[in-house]
Specification:
Keywords: Coiled coil, Membrane, Phosphoprotein, Transmembrane, Transmembrane helix
Number of helices: 3
Number of strands: 0
Radius of gyration: 45 Å
Main location: membrane
Membrane topology: Single-pass membrane protein
Number of domains: 2
Largest sheet: none
Helix content: over 70%
Pfam family, one: DUF4577
Order of helices and strands: HHH
Strand content: under 5%
Low-confidence stretches: none
Subcellular location: Membrane
Length: about 130
């Protein structure tokens, strides 16, 4: 049983060695150090599928672009909502300041009105 596991391990090492040899030959072909006939013997590019041509990558890319667009729009809406909340708070502070200022003015007007009424009552009582 241990012999079969060693065979599997040595088989993997042999395959890695073959891939290394093929890769080295391809590198030599790229440098034009090998004859032209050997260029087509060990082409890994033909055996390994291109990751960009797998079916569904277009949909996946479109999905991620759509997701990115939705996240960007939602982030913009959140910032807009925060901006509106801050603006509303500032306007409420302005209104409350005006109301307190007008309240003081109204109190002053009431005092002046009371003084005028008292003075008119005094003048009316003096005339009678």
């Amino acid at each position: 049983m241990t012999h079969s596991s060693q065979d599997a391990g040595s088989h993997g090492i042999q395959e890695e060695g073959r891939l290394y040899v093929v890769d080295s030959i391809n590198d030599l072909n790229k440098l034009s150090l090998c004859p032209m006939e050997s260029q087509h013997l060990f082409s890994l590019e033909d055996k390994i599928p291109n990751a960009g041509t797998a079916p569904g990558n277009g949909r996946r890319g479109l999905f991620f672009v759509g997701l990115l667009l939705v996240l960007t729009v939602s982030l913009a809406l959140v910032f807009f909502a925060i901006f509106l909340i801050i603006q509303t708070g500032n306007q409420m502070e302005d209104v409350s300041r005006r109301l307190t200022a007008e309240g003081k003015d109204i109190d002053d007007l009431k005092k002046i009105n009371n003084m005028i009424v008292k003075r008119l009552n005094q003048l009316d009582s003096e005339q009678n």
